[in-house]
Design goal:
Length: 562
Amino acid sequence: MDMENKVRQIRELVEAKREKFARVSDEVWAVPELYFHETKSAAILIKALKEEGFEVVLVNSNPATIMTDTTIADKVYMEPLTLEYVAKILRYERPDAIVPGIGGQTGLNLAMQLEKKGILKECQVELLGTPIDSIERAEDRELFKEMCQSIGEPVIPSQITYSVEEAIAAANEIGYPVVLRPAFTLGGTGGGFANNEAELVEIMKHALKLSPVHQVLVEKSVKGYKEIEFEVMRDGTDHAITICGMENIDPVGVHTGDSIVVAPILTLNDHDFTMLRDSALKIIKELKIEGGCNVQFALNPNSSEYYLIEVNPRVSRSSALASKASGYPIARVTAKIAVGMTLDEIKLGETTANYEPALDYIVAKMPRFPFDKFATAANTLSTQMKATGEVMGIGRTLEECLLKSIRSLEIGVCHLYMPKFDTMSNEDMLSYIATSPDDRIYAIAQLIRNGVSLHEIFKATMITEYFLESFKKIVDYETTLAENVGNKEILTTAKKMGFSDQYIAKLWKQDEVAVYNLRKEMNLFPVYKMIETSGCGGYIPYFYSTYEKENDSRISDKKKII
């Protein structure tokens, strides 16, 4: 089919689904974009739109991303992501539509400003994907609370405030401790926990300045609850699916971007899992979000009591994790839904997007912090995100993917061990981990080596004991390894658990090459297991390594680069 006929057919499809859309000869799109964490998602979205024959204009402030390559979008504007500059671009390009949902929080904020200032109406620009009123209900704390109450979803007791005086009164009524959440800010910027009035006043002054609408939610603290997330997808016909459930190892109180996150959810019983999944689907339908959406819950570790923390009505950092973990192309499907396609119309390999992925492996996301570059900055973690990157490990067990992730961080450690804690007392370490520092998993491992009980560590951190037991398995096997130098069976088990040759050599007091040579003698090498991205059993070359027998990778006769 020639391009002219293809474009005509696509136009007919869009016109049938969105009557307002047929206006000029060429559909032109603008995708506001924020920063490198969403870079890959935006590039995928642009590719998906171009697959359907559309011309794409990208607005992006970061020149150090793949999107600024001329092969990605048809036109690229590297300009500040502000109302003034984006309005100028819209007036010049006159696009038929914009898709802000891949541009992070800045994309949503800009879309709302363009709508409220009348720029979209002036330029006759359609906003595709999630509508403005849905974005407002998800992002505005007061509207969000009202919406949850109207559909019977439990929200944490809270009050909207616009001044320090109002915040003090709200905290006195709700009761300390409280958490402050400024509206429309990135990564929880400006928020934090306040245990008393003095702390509240200090945080509140900063939060009011950073919120573009000068609105701050004063909320009852549920610090220590489990934090559970669901990535959900909905199309314009109100059909919704859950793509991936994720569980934060760190409890509520540490921003999800700063927490170690695992998928699938490992510690919930069937009742609690179904309860939260159904709630996530109910919320995305009520908000009428079109595309990907992230829903976060706080769950009482001692009961089935839960609260809805927040909804991200866009493709977020968690979406990137869910997409990679499940193999479900969230950004691509979101783009197709934005132009009016439904889940059962969107082709993914040999099937459609209308399926819920099932994971037969475990994924761990671990944040990367910049404290090595900002040595004087406080390394304690709270509701304001401090991570500047992240890594992901995939394996058959939690221990394997945790150890893979640790090595990927490139912070000078190869195992759940950090020398700085060798000389610290147990009392000091227990006090240290209670403040949620960025390196507390290494301190926890040292406490386990020193014989401190998991229950005592749980009281200091509120990290679910299931995860602490996983740390203990790793620490306990260190002893087994050290006591069985050169044992081939023990070595095999250690490699399956994710131990590196480097750390095994340290425990055996050998050179790393000696451990490798022993593996070579045993023919003990990893195989590559496939992540089934199509949901239909098709062959997709997307793999993770693990120490098992069957290798899913197929070697072709094509010339190799490496």
